[in-house]
Write a structure and sequence with these properties.
This protein is mainly alpha-helical and 116 residues long. It is built from 3 helices and 2 strands, in the order αββαα. The structure holds zinc ion.
Amino acid sequence: MDKKFIEAVSEKLNQAKADLEKQLGSFAQKSLKKEGDWDAKMPLYNGGIEEEADEVEEFAVRLSLGNTLEEELRKVNLALAKIKKGVYGICDKCGKPIAVGRLEAYPQADFCSKCQ
Ligand SMILES: [Zn+2]
């Protein structure tokens, strides 16, 4: 694969990684138990019962958003690891190269358009 393209992709991935970590960091913290895992911060309970219910709901929203961001971050890290190994752009399922256009639009793609 073209070296210039790989360079551009790793820049994009590093940017995406920084963005995702920033978003996650606003309501979650890196898990001390598991590498690459994030724990949602528990909201502070300082109000009455009604407020508490709101906070619990907010916590659930944070958790599900956190999981989505965490999954995305996992893909970004995986793509960066593939670049290091020199196997970037290969479909995880069929082992064929992923179309460049697809990688440009979504650099952390791990499947080709047929397998996704
Ligand atoms: Zn495939």
